[in-house]
UniProtKB/TrEMBL annotation, chain A:
<keyword id="KW-1133">Transmembrane helix</keyword>
<feature type="transmembrane region" description="Helical">
    <location>
        <begin position="51"/>
        <end position="70"/>
    </location>
</feature>
<dbReference type="InterPro" id="IPR049978">
    <property type="entry name" value="SCO6880-like"/>
</dbReference>
<keyword id="KW-0472">Membrane</keyword>
<keyword id="KW-0812">Transmembrane</keyword>
<protein>
    <recommendedName>
        <fullName>Integral membrane protein</fullName>
    </recommendedName>
</protein>
<feature type="transmembrane region" description="Helical">
    <location>
        <begin position="21"/>
        <end position="45"/>
    </location>
</feature>
Automatic annotation (TrEMBL), chain B:
<dbReference type="InterPro" id="IPR051162">
    <property type="entry name" value="T4SS_component"/>
</dbReference>
<dbReference type="InterPro" id="IPR027417">
    <property type="entry name" value="P-loop_NTPase"/>
</dbReference>
<feature type="region of interest" description="Disordered">
    <location>
        <begin position="1"/>
        <end position="25"/>
    </location>
</feature>
<protein>
    <submittedName>
        <fullName>ATPase</fullName>
    </submittedName>
</protein>
Amino acid sequence: MERSGELTQIRTYGNFRRPTTAGLLGLGSWGTGVLLAGLILVVLVVMIAGLGWGAIAFTALAVVLASVAVRDEHGSSLLDRASAKITYQLAAQRGLTLYRSGPLGTVPWGTCQLPGLAACLRLSEHLDAYGRPFALISAPSTATHTVVIASEPDGAALVDQPQIDSWVADWGQWLTNLGDEPGIEAAAVTIETAPDSGHRLAHEVGGAIDPNAPAFARAMLTEIVKAYPAGSSTIHAWVTITFTAANSSGKKRTPEQVGRDLAARLPGLMSTLGSTGAGATRLVDAAELCEIVRVAYDPPTADLIAGAHADNEPVDLDWTDVGPAAHQAGWDVYRHDSACSVTWQMSSAPRGNVQSSVLARLLAPHPDIARKRVTLLYRPINSAVAAAMVEADVRAASFRATSTERPTARSILDTRSAEATAAEEAAGAGLVNFGALITATVTDPARLPEARAAVDMLSATARLRVRPCYGSQDAAFAAGLPLGILLPQLVSSITAFKDKL
Amino acid sequence: MSRHQKPAAPAPRRPGPKGWPGRDRGEAILIDPASEFRGTTVQVCGLWPWVVGSGTPMVGVPLGRHIITGATLCCDPISWFQRAKLIRNPSVFFLGLTGLGKSTAVRRMATGLAGYGVLPIVLGDLKPDYIDMVTALGGQVITLGRGRGHLNILDPGQAKHAARRLRDAGYEKQAQEVEADAHARRLTMVSALLTILRKQPPSDVEESVLDQALRVLDHQATHTPVLADLLAIVQDGPAAVREVAVDRGDFGEYQRITRGLEASLISLSRGGRLGEIFAQPTTNPMQLDRPVVYDVSSITEADHDVRAAVLLACWSNGFATVNIAQVLADAELEQRRHYFVIMDELWQALRSGSGIVDRVDSLTRLNRQVGVGTAMITHTMSDLRALPTPEDYLKAKGFVERAGMVICGGLPQAEMVDLTPVIGLSQAEQAMLASWQDPPAWDSRRGQEAEPPGLGKFLVKVGGRPGIPIRVDLTRTEQHIHDTNKLWHQRSRVGTRP
């Protein structure tokens, strides 16, 4: 009896929607406007120049609108792809996709600072209420400040479903709170898998070993240090929370002011994080953040850094020196220092219903991708705005469903899910925009095809559709790092307009 | 050099929002905002990011590798208590069916700890499993058994010497404490031996007679006393002893009162079942600064009483020595040493008599103060359930509850009923443990059994957190100390006499 009860109680999650505006024929609100205006124009052309010219004008209009309305399986239209290709080629011709830094580079300052979107980030360190140092990354371009929290999740491997369900529910609660907390702009969770260098073990054993210990015990420990780390992986997890620099009255605050404000708030945010399955949490300080970024751009330094830690030598990394000495942003690959990376974005959230373990294979270490970073980006929608938004969604969906005589099954389903969302929102849930970036890094370019194949396979198991961030590999790579780079706020107004078409 | 010299066209002092503008300066022109989706938080949380575990902090002895991720797990009760602060008291409870490598895992832990400067102490090795290890570590093997070694229960051991050193260094109070402890310990041991001998504890008068007699012995002793000396005092009846016996000045009355005691002491001091081991001067006194194993393997299980008495004596002696080491370290006369006390085949020891249960009970509560890490090893919870009295079972169950960490090997499904309320095993963990105790497959081609599925596999449970499944692989260095089948290497041959 009980067993059958358990089986029926598997929780599933779903109903993820692409934010759209109301419109006809799969167009957005602006697109619909263009369509209507264009039709009037066609009518005028017919009246003035005759049917032949009218037909030509109509065809032109249809082609223009089709380039916007016809979307591929990743949801990008012909216009999107064409404009990306052209912009990239122009940038490549102007040499903008290259980066040469350091004393011999072309970048001012003569340091190996971070490239591109991360170049303007500034780092400062503050103390929280318990006197623990934490790094604060300030982005003048988006007027935001970001803190990074490292966590040690327990994982779901040997945990019973009820416990997982409660963790997941708490995670949902945590996301809800993001929308309610004042000043939170975005959050991200980064799960990085990397090969274990063995230095950590060597450090532990080397640091703890007693020089007067029996030779046999020392011999055994030395042998273990040599034999054990081969082939094993480490998993790091970081949560980044991005706060807006503006205070409640809209005035911009300095990093010092934000740091003081966060000092009191962070312990609370971290303690609630613990009950979401994130396990033990701690704040990342400036030195550690520098190491994280440095290792991401130049993976072999992981060994050096771990080695330095093992010997208790200081790793003196300066924020202006953690970037790559050179990079080359290709159309679908990003070369930086000693490694090649490819970054994918989630182009379609899981359709249908998924269980909470859906990301397990994607996040776990994979033998074909030595270094892999999966970043889930969350942008909470202010609870004050959320209610209006879900109502608008319901209206948009029902407009689409009722605009034709015979609504398609899809549009009916759309209406229904929009209504479900509105109901959940009304019952107290928050509304959140989310995306995902997956970065695979290999040190040997010859292994890229394997990594690509592996990510395709892993994302399929996660029921995600992914697409390489064509032409913007460098930006996507930086956004996947725990630095609090908010892509949606950095895109040009043209891109933002395109989405409304 | 070139016409783009710096003073001519000063570069912008700070990078723009998309990086430094210009050729080779990595400006991010094209930004593709990661496609965003929208959902309510009660749905988006389903894409739960904490589904994979990040492993444990790497602190302690490298014990094994994670079965799923292959990451190295460092784990031992002392490091996890002292440095990682992961557990609240430095103890570990091992559970698992025999033959799946429990002792091997314990030896790995003990050897590693020895490498970290902790002294492993095996108080009563019944099998013997640890002699090779302690020998390899350059430690002391104390053999006890009929005709193999003696442990004088009246020997104050290091106490006398330590008290003198403390006194010389000006620690009078500590010196008195050490002496008082030594006295109490000897009294307890004699009482315990009498209890085991008679199957009932000595009376209150007898206890006070013994107490006084020991004091008298200490005052007049020129050499380390043995049981025969104690017997002589009781027989002589000096004034101090007669006083506590309340004989009202009548020596005949005194003799009547001490008759039973005298008889028992005669039995103990002139050999007999128990006396053989305890009535002679100690052959191999325990040292403070080396790994130690008490080899009691020669005492068979049939010798139930002797085993109980010997184990009790080993414990008493071992902990007394540890205690003295800590007092000396407090006074900065010795290095601070932590000890890792291994109690293998705990069920056998516990079953030997209720004295041991209480002893372990107090130890599991006090191990933080005494400065020792403990490893308690037994097969199943049912072993504990089989203890003579229900109180003993409850106490023994408390050991598992209080243990800082519990490490389980393969266990039968029936065990889960007892175990789950204590350490909170999830269904998945239960299934895993049960699968590890499956019998090995029969490899018909090679005509031998394949490796049992649970060999060397353990689940490390700390508090209510999900367990960490690991596999302990032996290194070449330690292969030779892990041979528990030495007698079975050669084939049996009838042979002929030369």
